[in-house]
Amino acid sequence: KYFEKLRGGMRIRIMAIMLVASLSPMLIVGGSLYLRTIRILTRKQYSTSLNSLSNIGRNVNTIVNNARQISLQLIQSQEVSEFLITYSENDVKAKERYASILRMLSFYISQNSYLDSILLQNGQINVSVYSSWLTHHDLINNELETKADKLKGGQLWISEYRPFQHSDTGRYEISLLRTINSLNTPSKKIGILRIMISESAIAKLFIDDVNTYEGQVYLIDKDGTILSASERMNVGNNINDYIDENRIIPNSVVANNQEGKLLACINVEGTDWKLINSMPINIIMQEASEIRNIVLLFVFISILLCAGLVLLISHSFVTPIERLALRMRTLQDD
């Protein structure tokens, strides 16, 4: 009886010990592999997101710099300066000069698809060229003119919704505003220049990024106003309506676990603007889940193999005891 009890208990103990000994390393290795995979994918996503935003930032910077170059060419143009100073409706050459300025502005519009319109204005004349037949109301109002007067040759970037003439619709524009001073008398203001960039042209830069990461991309100014966004209805609002700006760290990626998002942010070189990409964390978890499923399948197969092996090994241990128990029972019967 003692050997029969010993046989049954030993079989169970041997199987338990061998299962634990064989499965523990596999479970530890599998769990470590899964956690390591998540860390690797997260770091990869961080790097990819910043690189993607950097590419968008360079394209935005290119548009901004091109607009600046055009503005410099116009405010330093002798033809533009003479036109704004000497224009008079009674001048017999007024129409010819006006047409020449229109051709100049039209050339810039035709060479740069992101430009929506260019306007030259002073108290006597208003010259504007548009990329389409849709024109805006009040391109330069008194408030903007006051701001332009304070620039003293500098530049002002503004974003605002512009309603179209003869239409109930409009669109947002990102504009460069500069004063034009006389080339001969630099302290004398002779006009105002406004170069309007189509917001939708900048938003097109976000399309590939959004399609890849299923997130939202925002271009904001120093006050947090959204200048452009992949989700058009957000343009003109404040970034804090969608993301806590305090959680945003330029040139880095931050995980916002409360909202389940990764927030990538960079500064746009040459401006006080920021680009922000808000991505769902589950993008990373989807890839990690595939690794997890493979690990779980491996563990399940390992359990089956180990269980079969344990049965074989435990049988080899217990068989001699069973024979001994049988021998003892035979002796007892004799």
What would your notes on this structure say?
The chain is of the alpha+beta class. It has helices at residues 2-75, 78-86, 94-111, 142-149, 199-203, 207-213, 282-333; strands at 115-121, 126-130, 155-163, 170-181, 189-198, 216-220, 226-229, 252-256, 261-267, 274-280. The model is unreliable at 1-7 (pLDDT under 50).
Summary?
The chain is α+β, with helices and mostly antiparallel strands and 334 residues long. It contains seven helices and ten strands. It has a five-stranded antiparallel beta sheet with strand order 2-1-5-4-3. A five-stranded antiparallel beta sheet has the order 7-6-10-9-8.
In helices, the fraction of residues equals 40-55%
Described by the principal axes of the CA atoms, the overall outline is rod-shaped
Q: Report the biggest beta sheet as strand number plus sense, adding barrel if it closes.
A: 5 strands, antiparallel
> How much strand content do the residues show?
15-25%
Number of strands: 10
Which class best fits the helix and strand makeup? Answer: alpha+beta
| Mean residue pLDDT | 75
> What is the terminal separation in angstroms?
16 Å
Task: Going across the biggest sheet, name each strand in turn.
Answer: 2-1-5-4-3
Q: Rg to the nearest angstrom?
A: 37 Å
Instruction: Give me the number of helical elements.
Output: 7
Order of helices and strands: HHHEEHEEEHHEEEEEH
Low-pLDDT runs:
1-7
